[in-house]
Amino acid sequence: NNYFQDNGDGLELTRGAAFNLVANNHFISTAANPEPSQGIEILWGNDNAVVGNKFENYSDGLQINWGKRNYIAYNELTNNSNGFNLTGDGNIFDSNKVHGNRVGIAIRSEKDADAHITLTKNQIWNNGKEITRCEAGGSCVPNQRVGAIVFDVPGLEHAHFVGSRGHGVKIDPANLQKTCKQANEQGCNAQPNQNIQAPKLTLSKGQIAVEVKAQPNQRYQVEFFGNSSATSNEAEFYLGSAIAATNAQGIATLTWKPTAQVASVTANITDRLGATSELSSAVKLK
After folding, report:
1. Residue 169 confidence (pLDDT)
2. Which of 15, 99, 205, 254 is the most buried (most CB within 10 A)?
């Protein structure tokens, strides 16, 4: 129940910070702040719970750098360049409200190719705003893909990051990372979250037909989201979930019928280890 205004980082959980609860605080930056970096930065911090906070007007509402098993839930993030800016393994983002940012949830590539980040039941809407605020974070790359959930947004450790890496911070260019763009490319990070692919949705006779292309003989959770606008491709309302089991060729199909009145539907999938995809393209219902 604290109020943090105009700090560089409102709060840090770094270098071994573990088993902390951060709850019901308001982290806000105003035009008076010369370096609006993060509301909270978690750096090599593990097993923390960040619940019920609000983050607004930062480069990143909340940034995780290689922390593990942090539980981030029921927070609100608005008017940030990135709502969440993430690496790390075993972190769970549950039932957050992410709106009015440039990128709602940005997942960066990292050296740990097996790291996985779980996104579940989050409400994400009205992102894609032109908020180029990049103080030790944020999203300022020209022609950057923006929107609800975006993989491979560059961070401070990446060569193609655009912005301040922190006032007075200098990084040897030889240590900067890049993301692999081609198969069998060397000396680069794999695509984040094992490059898990979003499902394909089509509308048929009032039902949503779902096709999943993934690993063979595996179970995936499909989460469905609705939007109030037929032109929206985000995740404004959580609608429900279903299980998809792939065959020996890695294909799964199912049908799902929405019960809520929405204008469009999107979906993503999460594998058995907890890695979640970006959102699918939307299907219009009306």
Report:
1. 81
2. 99
